[in-house]
Amino acid sequence: MASSLLGQVIGIEVLRRHGEARAKALLEYFDYASRNDLFVSYVIINPQADRSKAWGEQEDELVAQLVDEDSGGITVRGAKMLGTSTIMANELLVANLQPLKPGEENLAVSFAIPVATRGLKLLSRKSYEAAATSVFDSPISARFDENDVLVYFDDVKVPWERVFVYRDTDMCRAQFHDTLGHTFQNYQAQIRLSVKIKFLAGIARRLAETIGIANMPPVHEELGWVAAQAAMVSSMEAGGHMHNGAYVPNKHFMYASQVLTQELYPRIVDKIRGFAGGALIMLPSSVRDWGDPELAAIIAKTQRSPIATPRDRVKFLKLAWDAIGSEFGSRHTQYEMFYAGARYVSCGHSFRTYDWAAADALVDALLEDARL
């Protein structure tokens, strides 16, 4: 979120085309949020409903939209998604990443408000952290659940000084794509994802060692494939450029990474599942089982490993399951596959930013030198 807002501020001349008042509002909000070290979440996608219809054709009060305005500001009613960590945030940015068309001006607003604003309602999915019985049994979800929410605006009043886009369908797109907002938020996302893939690579190798298959040639091959993916050196920075005093990563290399990693994350998860077999299923139900001497004796006999004690084996396998098989782990797989949109969306960004002229020039050069 910080990256996205910074990208928009670097491209503030785009908002100035929309109006000096709206640009001033965004600049002052960025200053306010950064100076006060606020936790800002955002909702920039409309809720799923009837995908055969345009956003403006959906049922009344589904999509968040302008329903009133006065000298003090605008009033918004309807829903947006998907507010990751919004229940823990101080502030909420509302915008439209999905394209809008002429005639949908009532939907074309962007603003920021405190999460405690009257009429703002948060419908959270089930908390994985709340269901975690202990850090031993759920070592990741017990500490790192983000609680995604659907946000409903029940006639929420937004003051003009917090409104960044007002009734302009194209400016909703430009807020992210003509500024560096979309570039910076996805650049940060690729850095985040590279760390998660490195973590999964560590789980894959440790799992192979734990169950005694690490030295098998087929397993070496699979681990080598995982290592190759985790070790990919991104050229986003090397191909970047300066813009308004900021260094900007190469857009195409960033979007290309996005296309590849949408498929990569679930493939690595499948590799780990293949290594594990039944190991992730035959685990004790809870750390409390160790408190029963009879159960503890059976666990000690059945949870064997060439590199770990029975307790350490169970502790690691609980971690592996939480990463790839639990509700928390499944949520992350789903997130990494679709946080950037459907595959045609991410591939569209890659198509749009590729240097097709250079590729065409190679073809033309060869044809020009061809002899009959």
What's the topology here?
Elements: H1 2-10, H2 12-18, H3 20-35, E1 40-43, E2 65-70, E3 73-83, E4 91-94, E5 109-114, E6 120-124, H4 128-131, H5 141-144, E7 149-159, E8 163-166, H6 169-177, H7 181-210, H8 217-230, E9 241-243, E10 246-248, H9 251-276, H10 293-302, H11 310-324, H12 327-338, H13 343-353, H14 356-369
Parallel strand pairs: 1-4
Antiparallel strand pairs: 2-3, 3-7, 4-5, 5-8, 6-7, 9-10
Task: Outline the structure in words.
This protein is an alpha+beta fold. It contains 14 helices and 10 strands. It has helices at 2-10, 12-18, 20-35, 128-131, 141-144, 169-177, 181-210, 217-230, 251-276, 293-302, 310-324, 327-338, 343-353, 356-369; strands at 40-43, 65-70, 73-83, 91-94, 109-114, 120-124, 149-159, 163-166, 241-243, 246-248. The strands form 3 sheets. Strands 1-4-5-8 form a 4-stranded mixed sheet. It has a 4-stranded antiparallel sheet with strand order 2-3-7-6, with no helix packed on it. The protein has a two-stranded antiparallel sheet with strand order 9-10. The termini are far apart. The model has no long low-confidence stretch (mean pLDDT 91).
